[in-house]
Write a structure and sequence with these properties.
The chain contains ten helices and eleven strands. The chain has helices at 64-71, 73-83, 94-114, 131-152, 156-172, 178-194, 200-209, 226-229, 256-264, 267-273; strands at residues 12-14, 17-18, 30-33, 36-39, 47-48, 52-53, 90-91, 233-240, 243-251, 278-284, 288-293. It has a four-stranded mixed beta sheet with strand order 9-8-11-10, with helices on one face. Strands 6-1-7 form a three-stranded mixed beta sheet, with no helix packed on it. Strand 8 (233-240) and strand 9 (243-251) form a beta hairpin. The longest helix has 22 residues, at 131-152.
């Protein structure tokens, strides 16, 4: 495992089932028919009990061998990390593991469909990169920064969510020239290393397909470029007498006077003030505008 110490996780839970004689049933012994949980191979409904931690005594267990044979161990790891924070219990579900399996396939397809147009590994960054490609570079480096922080703080489910967002952005990106293609390679290489702690087998296969002769687990962890992670704009909440009334998107680090003018120009803010005199405006840079009014 890619960690120096172990972290105690919550229990994996599952529904419990009993047949007509009150005997416990394994999950593979039941099936859904027209929305009703039935015993497989029989014509009667089973009793569906509460979700409890998996235990052999109640037979609400899912054999890991069956999961590995059907979906692969990477899909199982991805599902368990994505479902909830590691300190909480996680409910096992067929829909969850199937979704994780589809994720594995999606990453593989994204890589496979991009390989033909990618520049050779180690190709220098072209001098000219278009706006769309620059936007993808920003997404790449912000994802690197966010996933790195999430993994360091054991927020695996948040790291997984960020990877999903990253893949959505890459799937919508259509490289058209050498600059675009270089940016796509940079993004795919970063993606491959970022998912290595969660889906190592998929990561290693992708790393080889990208032209590496070493293992992904031994590759340097990607570093985010601060210039590319810097946000050009921020969304500020607008409070009036302590109650949130509106929000406004403004350039980052805008002077306080300009922030105040922009906030007071908002129609919803003017309506909420309702003609009252403004006592003072408190601005928390890049976060909140709090307007304090005089009582009528």
């Amino acid at each position: 495992e890619p960690f120096a110490g172990l972290f105690t996780q919550g229990m994996i839970t599952h529904e419990t089932y009993k047949d007509s004689d009150g005997k416990w049933l394994f999950p593979e012994q039941v099936e859904k028919r027209d929305g009703v949980t039935m015993k497989r191979g029989a014509n009667y409904a089973v009793e569906v009990g509460p979700v409890e931690k998996m235990s052999k005594s109640k037979k609400n267990v899912v054999p890991p061998e069956a999961v590995a044979d059907t979906y692969g161990v990477d899909a199982a790891r991805w599902f368990m990390m994505s479902d909830s924070p590691p300190e909480r219990d996680s409910e096992w579900s067929d829909a969850g593991i199937e979704g994780a399996w589809r994720f594995v396939q999606r990453v593989w397809r994204l890589l496979d469909e991009s390989l033909a147009t990618l520049p050779a590994r180690g190709t220098p960054c072209p001098a000219a990169i278009g706006k769309q490609a620059n936007d993808i570079r920003r997404v790449t480096h912000r994802t690197i920064a966010a996933v790195t922080e999430d993994l360091e703080k054991f927020r695996f489910n948040k790291a997984v969510a960020r990877v999903f967002e990253f893949i959505n952005a890459l799937s919508a990106f259509e490289p058209k020239d050498a600059g675009d293609q270089w940016v796509m390679r940079e993004a795919l290489e970063a993606l491959t290393i970022l998912i290595n702690p969660m889906v190592p087998h998929l990561s290693e296969e992708c790393w080889q397909r990208l032209g590496s002769t070493t293992m992904a687990v031994h590759a340097p962890w990607p570093k985010a470029d601060p210039e590319l992670t810097r946000l050009d704009s921020v969304t500020l909440a607008i409070q009036i007498d302590g109650k949130r009334r509106d929000e406004v998107e403004l350039p980052k680090d805008l002077p306080s006077k300009a922030v105040e003018e922009a906030a007071l120009a908002r129609e919803d803010v003017r309506k909420a003030i309702d003609g009252r005199a403004i006592k003072k405006v408190i601005i928390v840079p890049n976060r909140i505008v709090n307007i304090v009014t005089e009582p009528k």
